[in-house]
Specification:
Elements lengths: L2 H7 L19 E7 L5 H14 L4 E5 L5 H11 L8 H25 L3 E5 L2 H9 L3 H15 L5 E6 L2 H8 L14 H17 L4 E5 L4 H14 L4
Parallel strand pairs: 1-3, 1-4, 2-3, 4-5
Helix pairs in contact: 2-9, 3-4, 4-6, 5-6, 5-8
Bound molecules: adenosine-5'-triphosphate (ATP) and magnesium ion.
Length: 232
Amino acid sequence: MSPAESRTAESSPAGSTSGSPPGRAPAAAFVTFEGVDGAGKSTQLARLAEALREAGREVVVTREPGGSPGAEEIRRLLVEGEAHRWSPETEILLFTAARRDHVERVIQPALRRGAVVLCDRFADSTRAYQGAGDAARRALVDRLHETIIGIEPGLTLILDLDPADGLARASERAGAEDRFERKGAGFQQALRREFHRLAEANPGRCVLIDATGDPDTVAARILAVAEARGLL
Ligand SMILES: Nc1ncnc2c1ncn2[C@@H]1O[C@H](COP(=O)(O)OP(=O)(O)OP(=O)(O)O)[C@@H](O)[C@H]1O
Ligand SMILES: [Mg+2]
C-alpha cells in the first residue's frame, strides 16, 4: 500500500453531509475516538457500534496502539513497563510501525468492503501525546504520518473532559497498561489542550464532544453528530 493508494481507499469519508442514496450500499466510513485517559472513548465507541449495527451497517471495531496481531505485539512494548522506557523519537517510530500494520491489515480491507471502521484512538493520540509542547516532535509525527500512513479518518470524535474527571473514572479500572496515565496531571492537562488545538486545526474532520454527564447523555451527543454526517 502506498500512501497515495491509501488516501483514495476511503471511497466517501464520513464527512459527507447526507445519508446514502436510496438503493445504494452506504459508503465506507472511518471514524476515530480521541480524548484524554478515562474520557469515555471505549464506552462510547461500543455504544455507537451498537447503534450502527442496529441500523444494518457492517461495523469493525478496533483500537490503537494495536488492532492487528503485529501491532498488538508492538502495543505491549509501548504501554507496559517503566515510564521512560523509550526515547520520544523511538516511541514515535514504534507507534508508526504499529499503525502501518493496522492500516494495511485491518482498516483498509474493512473500508474496501464498505464497512464502518470505529477506531479507539488513532494518529491524533500520537500527535497529542508525543507532540505535546514540542514542535520538532510534532513535525516528526506529521512527516511520518504523511509518508508512512497517508490516511485520515473522515470523522474524529474528540471526547472533551477535564482530565481530573477522566482519571477519577479510569482509576476505578485495574490493569497493567498505565504507563501513560502515570505521567501525571500536568501532562494530562497539556494533552487536553493538544486535542483542542487539533480540533481547531481540523474543523471538517474533528468534532469536540462534551464528555461530561452520564453515558446516555454523551451517547446522544455522538448519535446526533453521526446522523448529521450520514452514518446512520
Ligand atoms: N459518562 C460517564 N460517566 C461516568 N463514568 C463513565 C462515563 N463513561 C465511561 N465511564 C466509566 O469511566 C471509566 C473510563 O471509561 P472508558 O474506559 O470508556 O474511557 P476511555 O476514554 O476509553 O479510557 P482510556 O483512555 O483509559 O482507554 C470506565 O470505568 C467507564 O465505565
Ligand atoms: Mg479506552
